[in-house]
Amino acid sequence: MGSFRVKGKVKALEGDNAVAEAMRQINPDVVAAYPITPQTEIVMTFSEFVADGLVDTEFIAVESEHAALSACIGAAAAGARTMTATCGPGLALMWEMLWIASGWRLPIVMAVVNRAFSSPLNILCSHDDSMGSRDAGWIQLYAETQQEAYDNTIQAVRIAEHPDVLLPVMTCLDGFVLSHTLEPVEVLPDEEVRKFIGVYIPVYPLINIEHPVTYGACAFSDYYFEHKRPLWEAMGKAAKVVADIGREYGNLTGRYYGLVDAYRLDDAEIAIVILGATAGATRVAVEKMRQHGIKAGMLRLRCFRPFPAEEVAEMLRGKKAVAVLERVAFFGAEVAPVFLDVATALYLRGIHTQLVNYIYGLGGRDTTPEQICTVFQDLADIARTGKAGPIFRYLGLRD
Amino acid sequence: MATATEKAKINLKEISNQEDKLAPGHRLCTGCAESIIVRQVLHAISDPVIVASPTGCLEVSTGVFPFTAWRVPWIHNAFENVASTIAGVETAYRSLVKQGKVKDKGIKFVVFAGDGATYDIGFQWLSGVLERGHRILYVCLNNEAYMNTGIQRSGATPKGTWTTTTPVGKVFLGKQENRKDLTTIVAAHNIPYVAQVAPHAWRDLMTKVKKAVACDGPSFLNAIAPCPRGWRYDPKDTIALSKLAAETCVWPLYEVDHGIWRLNNKPAEKKPVVEWLKAQGRFAHLLRPGNEVLVDEFQQAVDRDWEKLQRLCECPS
After folding, report:
1. CA-CA 20 to 30 A from A298: which of A222, A237, B152, B306?
2. Three-state DSSP class for residue A67
3. Beta partners for residue A263, in sequence order
4. Are A73 and A49 a contacting pair, CB within 8 Å?
5. What number is the ipTM of this complex?
6. Three-point CA angle A131, A134, A139, nearest 5°
């Protein structure tokens, strides 16, 4: 396919509306969803599209998130292009179903508007929800901006349905920070989106009466293990597909996406690894540090599942000190989930960078460029002295 | 309101020549009522069907990889969510037909679920699907306990029944609570068609299936499903017990057809409930000397429900 750029129309959209707009253009056969703050606007906006006849979608306004994913699984198994959206507690309620969706290799696309887990009750952003389900066999993309939330939604359909992949995809966006703030979003012409995603041809549609299939047979010690292996293999192949489709989307729109997104990393001596919207504040902090002559850089993980270990390791190779910033409350391990994967990727390739782990922004607490600058200053100290000090740290936590 | 298919004849000869959609060779217990009911239901539907089952006896006995006993498309998702799962399938089909992506072949969507998945863990999912009006037939294979996991109480277990979680102890003799009247609860959703059925009354059952699948909306059949293992009786007596359930009015056969309550089988002589109790080991403790009051209580509960049902069937509006 030759390189060409399509001019979209720039609209002021909140993240939720940007996702809903992408869903309208994708025009899935079935959407089953349950409203939950801060995802509600996706469901409300999409309901308006349904009410106005702007989509062909059959929308099931279910009575819970568990029912939402259950119905999506039924619809996807039947052979329908299927989408949903949820957040925090809703994703927790879907928990059991996540594994069945991936186990059946159903290309469901689900927006996850990241929200903190109770207790205490909180409706604002942490990544507890998607991080908690990171091993469920779903591909996970994290958006930095409203534009990316829109772009990821469209790409996710292609990734999920790719014959080498056939896995469900979560497109994550930070609750309120992205979901409820207005930014300019370039929206593609409808026909370009439809051309990009193409026609969906299901592999084993349940509704094919002539060739009856059984979905959901049980398998015990004799066959269970063999059923799981293809998921590892599909995840293994998914990284290339995510990268390829990000490139193809770039050729179409001028907005290129990879597994990771490096910012001033090439000559950086110290770096922050982060995912989600706080990458924006991190870019500002990088610039401030650079103004003071400190060679700071950022590595943003756009794709967290599959984990782009090779890219992460190669991009962090030679850095003197690296901080992994995480918006997640996870207990019991020495460090948080992203750190574990980064450290593993480095260790397995013999890269011995000084690593530290910061927990930031839980429950929607704002994280400023100034705070992130203090992380870079810590990293500069570590780089100078060669001493990491405590590995696990808090950022923006009151004493 | 009578539908066109209501009068449809059930032709036994014709049925006997049809292929079973549930193949022999499944792993259900000898004497299990479930395969009998499933085959009765599927023989009554001439259109193509897609079947869904939640986790339970039927599921673990008919779909064990690499085998399947289903000659029709079949889907098992999890224990609690069969209603939402089949609603997803039905919605997908409706969407694809509407868009012209697939041809309309008049597919019917049928659930076979145990009482655990229906009365208890899947109750919310069922209620949601009924309220939203999905065009499905939901058949509850009601054996009055969680038989698949080894005879534990359910919301369908009658008061006084022995199960492994309501054992007969020194202080408590069996289940201490009344069963839930799920058929009435389902009827309260104001769906087009609701009925109680039993496998001995196969003509009644199959007639009701025909009415149910002709409805433009959800339909629900609650089928009593005698279980030799859980009820503690000789497997040869399954159909006899089904009959006894109706004759004692423990399981009356009735329907709520577009809001009209109708008794389908009023026993000429209502048999005393003790006949029902003494036929099953799960009630053996009730018949021990000194426990007569418990038998009386059982009888009173059956009488009360029967009176109430008769009143509902007398006053259709």
Report:
1. A237
2. helix
3. A298
4. no
5. 0.97
6. 125
pLDDT digits (tens, 9 = 90+) for A68-82: 999 999 999 999 999
| Domains: count for chain B | 1
CA nearest to B261, candidates B317, B218, B189, B304: B317
Dmax of chain A from CA atoms?
Answer: 71
Containing structural domain, residue B177: 4-314
**Dihedral pair phi/psi, residue A61, rounded to 5°:** -85, 85
Is A77 within 8 Å of chain B by CB?
Answer: yes
Quickly list H helices, A54-145: 65-78, 88-93, 95-103, 128-132
Best mutation site among B68, B70, B76, B89 for testing chain A: the one with the most A CBs within 10 Å? B89
**CATH number for position B218:** 3.40.50.970
Residue A189 in contact with residue A129, Cβ under 8 Å? no
The residue type of A31 is V
Gyration radius of chain B's alpha carbons: 19
DSSP state of B145: S
Q: How would residue B4 be classed by pLDDT, with cut points 50, 70 and 90? A: very low
Rounded Cα–Cα distance for residues A244 and A257 (Å):
9
Domains of chain A as residue ranges with CATH: 9-204+213-253 (3.40.50.970), 260-395 (3.40.50.920)
> Which A residues, 202 through 241, put their C-beta within 8 Å of a C-beta on chain B?
206-209, 212-220, 223, 227
pLDDT digits (tens, 9 = 90+) for B148-161: 999 999 999 999 99
Provide the phi-psi class of B25: left if phi over 0, else alpha when psi is between -120 and 50, else beta.
left
